[in-house]
Amino acid sequence: MAPQTRRMPFPKVVIERDSDSNQSTSDDDDDGEEAECSLSESETEFEDAAENGKTDEVEIGNMGMMKKGKELLSKKKGDVPLTIRLQKVCKVCKKPGHEAGFKGATYVDCPMKPCFLCKMPGHTTMTCPHRVASEHGVIPAPMKNTQNYLEYFFLRQIRPNIHPIKPAYVIPDQVCCAVIRYHSRRVTCLEFHPTKNNILLSGDKKGQIGVWDFDKVHEKMVYGNIHSCIVNNMRFNPLNDGTIYAASADGTISFTDLETGISSSLMNVNPDGWQGPSTWRMLYGMDVNSEKGVVLFADNFGFLYMLDMRSNNKTSEALLIHKRGSKVVGLHCNPVQPQLLLSCGNDHFARIWDMRKLEAGSSLYDLPHKRVVNSAYFSPLSGRKILTTCQDNRLRIWDSIFGNLESPSREIVHSHDFNRHLTPFRAEWDPKDPTESLAVIGRYISENYNGTALHPIDFIDITNGQLVAEVMDPNITTISPVNKLHPRDDVLATGSSRSLFIWRPKERSEPLEQKDDRKIVICQIPGKKYKQKFGGESDDDSDDYGFASKGKNIKLEKRKAKSTPYPRKGKH
């Protein structure tokens, strides 16, 4: 027969919550908490000793503690309730007495920290001058762009491709079609097909690659057996546009046929398998250099790899291009000067390299930043400008790679610093803009539109910092960190959580009241947890169901997708 143990009565627990005041608790309350903690520890010691029948053998440092312990034992017999106090704790500074973060559509700043938007003290996020006017403090680009003889000759070579008159911007500001819950995890990258205008590719956190014909809407496919975890980058094969390269955090470079879905692993940087997190290599930045016939990709230890596109073999050993142990999150080859390579990483630097003499520490220029650099791109037509996105809520622009690169030509404050599980925001050029002055990027801080918290997508003129347009849809309440402009059509693709959206310019002559003809596809996923209204698979998909839906029939709001165009002056 098993021995029976005497069950001690569990004390009654009383939970008290502090008042809603934003003031910190007084010193007396803190002292009281310390006293309660010391009492509880002493109580535990004496209870253990009493159960073992060795109360007399418990060693007490002084007579005061002995007396306190006896009082606790006597109180224990009377079932004295224990009091637990719940205090407000700020999620930003981790201190009690106040709260910070989003309150509906309004961001409340932590009083112990500077402005969340511009990172400067003296004001709040709601009253930040950069929030009122995005061009605040920005020095506009000079009208005369030529700065030296080298740039002058360079511009003469590409001048036939530059439009003499700056045309008006065409902004895709209305959702025309979408596929909801297309991926099983959040979207991480997007890529348009180089020759088929209606094909969009998307990668997600689970390692899947989706192929979607957004003109026919219902024609879509997801290949789930290519990678085992997050797809960080995708690039089309310039020799065969029916195939694509993908870099994943599972440490492999895949080569996939989009028609059949058949994929092969070209390279695995973890040949020995999992040996622990300290040695596991994940691939992030990637680009294709068609002139040299190589695929370039980089890992989370600061190393660059090159793969020959014809033989699918490594062309050289791994090369350290950023601080050892830091992620290289972006690679971009100059579209006009293919020997120039731009890289960026978690070591707070963007670097320009000459691929003809790649060696560790041989970068042509190092562009310093204050925090992690999410992306860095050459301008799409001339390749002479540089646009970077940094986690310090700054977009930095260098107007000429032939000029002074010690400091950026201008810095634009923009909200893209985040404190949750999201794909990093990246500002991208408009590849159709002949003036190379328009960039698109999602916004983190939400805005209150008719009582709904919406996260707009911003179109910014990088020559003066002005907000050209902010586009949003009342049905999309999730954050849109992944955005891609079409290289030929006036189309914007957005990856928001697990869904994809296609934006086109709104017809300005259409009547105010018009039947909503958008094409929306809802991908149903089995399982009880997906049937909940705000359910989710993981911490990064907590806002998956931001697109308004009720029951099985989706009723889209009749409010039109909103956009706020800003007047701009152009040459005529």
From TrEMBL:
Keyword Flavoprotein included in the entry's annotation: no
Keyword Nucleus belongs to the record: yes
SUPFAM superfamilies named in the record: WD40 repeat-like (SSF50978)
Protein origin, superkingdom: Eukaryota
Main subcellular location: nucleus
Family: Belongs to the WD repeat DDB2/WDR76 family.
Acidic residues bias locations: 26-50
GO cellular component: Cul4-RING E3 ubiquitin ligase complex; nucleus
GO biological process, one term: response to UV
Keyword vocabulary terms for this entry: DNA damage, DNA repair, DNA-binding, Metal-binding, Nucleus, Repeat, Ubl conjugation pathway, WD repeat, Zinc, Zinc-finger
GO MF term list: damaged DNA binding; zinc ion binding
Region (Disordered): 1-52, 531-572
Bias (Basic residues): 557-572
First and last residues of every WD repeat: 180-222, 369-399
Localization of this protein: Nucleus
Name recorded for this polypeptide: UV-damaged DNA-binding protein 2
